């Protein structure tokens, strides 16, 4: 549980979004899906 809490706090610090907020969570999930589709960070855009 501690690792999960740490990661959620880290996401909040890095992005300024709150993963507990549904709108912010949707935005983060969409960004992750987009990054994976683009092959990020492995491929240059």
UniProtKB/TrEMBL annotation:
Residue ranges of domain PucR C-terminal helix-turn-helix in the record: 4-32
Keywords, ordered alphabetically: DNA-binding
Any one GO molecular-function label of the UniProt entry: DNA binding
Claim: DNA-binding is one of the keywords in the record: yes
The keyword Cytoplasm is assigned to this record: no
Lineage top rank: taxon: Bacteria
One protein family per Pfam: HTH_30
Official protein name in the record: DNA-binding PucR family transcriptional regulator
